[in-house]
Amino acid sequence: MFELNLSDWQILLVKLGLVLAIVPAITLVAGYAEHKVMAHLQHRLGPMYPGGFHGWATLLADGLKFIYKEDIIPAAADRKVFSLAPLAIFVPTVLTVLVLPLDETLVVEELDLGLFYLLAVSSISTIGMLMAGWSSSNKYALIGALRAAAQLIAYELPIVLSAAVAAMLAGTLSLNGIVEAQEWPFVLWPPGIGLIAFLVFFGAGVAELTRPPFDMPVAESEIITGAFTEYSGMRFIFSTFFPEVANMVIISGVATTLFLGGYQPIVPLGFLDAVPGLVWFTLKTAFMVFMLLWIRPTFPRLREDQLQKFAWKFLIPTSLVLILAAGAWVLYAPEGLK
Amino acid sequence: MDVARTEENIRLPDEVAQEVAEGRLQTEQMVLNVGPQHPATHGVFRLLATIDGEVLVDAEPVIGYMHRGYEKLVEARDYRQITNLVSRMDWLSGINNEMPLALAVETLMELEVPPRAQYLRVVLLEMNRILNHLMFFASFAAELGAITPTFYAFREREDIQAAMEMATGGRMHFGYMRPGGLKEDVPKGFFDQALFGVRQVMDRIDDYYNLIIGNEIYKQRTIGVGVLDKELAYNYGVSGPIARGSNIDFDVRKDEPYLAYADFDFEVPVGLNGDCFDRFWVLLHEVYESARIVEQAIEGMPSGPILGKVPRVIQAPEGEVYVRCENPLGELGMYLVSDGDRRPYRLKIRTPSYNNVSVLPVVLRNTFVSDMIAILGSFFFVLGDIDR
Predict the structure, then answer these.
(1) Higher pLDDT residue, B335 or A217?
(2) pLDDT value at position B23?
């Protein structure tokens, strides 16, 4: 039997290569889904021509177009910061994928502090937004960047607090551990607590993605494209489209892991075990992505102050109460119910 | 467009804290140049907005980027040519622009307009009003961040547009009015297509309600935003759906009926508070009322000629007349002075958007940047109508 002997750094390289190949691929699929789902919700067909079959190659063509575009840096811009900003947004996005367990063993790096790492890394992109807005030397970009910073900080809290609920219920910060603890997914059991925590997480997640109805930082009818008004070509793709769509999938994946039972079957029935974990994970994530896509053509946009109120006066108090409730559940619930 | 990044602007955190404690911390105002190329201004409208953070301290509309000198151009053209010229003022409601001109010439020449022409005119005018209102339904929602209504509105517009095209051959600039009647009779199948179009709109207006007006976020964005007082609206000569949103119950079609409008049963929707919500509510209701008028007019359509006894060369006798009509966006008035020539001596045009926009600086003061977009969207103006 042929045996593969790889040193640690070789394994690391292979994993890195896989991540760097899979993340853009998933982004393309999700981006195409966004085009098509939105189109059909709006009585139109969406892209039909590129590639032949229902315009499957639209995004490839789009990407190619953006590669050929002139890369413009405004004369008054801070060149270094301006060029680095897309990286500061793009790299954390890829880094978050490292700890997501797609299946029991299908995870790039199983960290004991997986959840902590995930939340810490994903909040770096705020800095990128600020960098982009400030260095562009454009008033719309500045307004957009400040909106983005205020919004991302406000919604980081409910995300962390509701994720903490999942961690408390599971008794671990390891993402694999959290999934293993969900024989019944948290969204179903413990009753109420998990469901509300899931909804808080989902709502704050939409805001964190700066997608409608929380898309004020990039509100195209108000401030053009917010912090990225001056970006063009590949920098534009790597600072807006790519992170937005990739983050959409990642947030869905995180929600799946924390509340929907990750790679476990949705309900613990024996015959469902026959379905591989990867399929469960993909199905649940796809469902979450679809929900996100559904929201976009349905709702108008909130105003910045209303958004802040929603975070500070509603989501954060709710998640604080949830933490109390989860603590009480963990401590006092009878063994049979857990 | 340079954001101040000088040395004196960089302050240490404890200094800032001290300043706040002593009440010395001051924010700086910045001038935001909205337009002439901005997605929310649908045209070359420019707004010099002085903002303090997200609050609009002052706003100054700058217009005139699209001035084409129509009032001078018409003095060198005969009435048939002017019809096609004024059609291009407000490009969303072409045939409504042609109406007051035809009425003015008819009044001066004392021409009789046959009943069928009057009814057909009403049908076309009201269908054009629906087209215009649906367009603003789409754009206002888009400015609030809802992208779907655009596609819904254009789906319905298309069927009515097809009917207009059958009759006039045009989709935007119709050139169908003639002093004394219409250019020609409508073709076979026109009435079926028109009825199909307006009935479809009437059926689907509930969807629009549920999608936009019933939406909680939409209510939060519009109720109490951009309030235009009744008094203020009077003082600035605001008219149309915007004035009616501010509780001014005035519609030229109802209060000074021209054409055959007196024959039809329709209501004039009036808002209570004059905020963005009311203006949009009035707009959507007018779509329904217009559809009702079209239905009634087609059902009661008389037969007969579509052009009265008109001389070969249209020459208005010496005199002057002021005619006003209810354009989709407000009151469109034309003051025609003739010296007996084939051309007008002077044609003063009072366009609705011009007066409506003039009240913007007052309404926009002390609002948020996001509200500014909502208010601009709810003022339903067409650039060509402002600058003409």
Answers:
(1) B335
(2) 67
Q: Which domain holds residue A268?
A: 15-332
| Cα distances (angstroms) measured from residue B18 to each of B13, B14, B49, B173 | 9, 6, 31, 64
Structural contact between residues A200 and A319, judged by C-beta atoms closer than 8 angstroms:
yes
Residue with tokens 């059958």: B166
Question: Is B145 in contact with A44 (Cβ distance < 8 A)?
Answer: no
Name every residue whose Cβ is closer than 8 Å to that of residue A16 and which is 6 or more positions away in sequence.
Answer: none
Residue A234, token pair as written in the block: 């590949």
Residue A8 lies in a domain: no
Domains of chain B: 70-358 (1.10.645.10)
| Residue that is written with structure tokens 């802040």 in the block | A308
pLDDT digits (tens, 9 = 90+) for A219-270: 777 777 878 888 888 888 888 888 888 888 888 988 988 888 888 888 777 7
| Assigned domain for A3 exists | no
In chain A, how many domains are there? 1
- Cα-Cα-Cα-Cα dihedral sign, residues B212, B213, B215, B221: positive
Query: Residue A268 falls within a domain, yes or no?
Result: yes
Nearest Cα to Cα of residue B285 among B244, B238, B248: B244
Q: To which H or E segment does residue B141 belong?
A: helix B115-143
For residue B38, list chain A residues with Cβ-Cβ distance below 8 A: 224
Of the listed ranges A74-88, A188-202, B4-18, the one predicted with least confidence: B4-18
Picking from B191, B164, B177, B192, the residue whose alpha carbon sits closest to that of residue B306 is B177
Give A129 to chain B, closest Cα distance, Å. Answer: 16
CA atoms of B353 and B240, how far apart (whole Å): 9
Residue A337 maps to a domain: no
Q: Is B223 on the interface with A (CB under 8 A)?
A: no
Q: Are B148 and B211 in contact (CB under 8 A)?
A: yes
Residue of chain B minimizing CA distance to A213: B145
Asked whether A159 and A118 are in contact (CB, 8 A), the reply is no
Q: Is the pTM of this model over 0.90?
A: no
B134 to chain A, minimum CA–CA distance in Å?
16
Cα-to-chain-centroid distance, residue B44 = 16
Is the ipTM value over 0.95, yes or no? no
Chain B nearest CA to A220, separation (Å): 7
User: Which of A38, A140, A215 comes nearest B145 by C-beta?
Assistant: A215
What pLDDT does A241 receive?
82
CB neighbours of A9 closer than 8 A, spacing ≥ 6? none
Q: b or e along A53-89 (b: 16 or more beta carbons within 10 Å of the residue's beta carbon)?
A: ebbebbbeebbeebeeeeeebbeebbeeebeebbebb
B73 C-beta neighbours (distance < 10 Å), count: 15
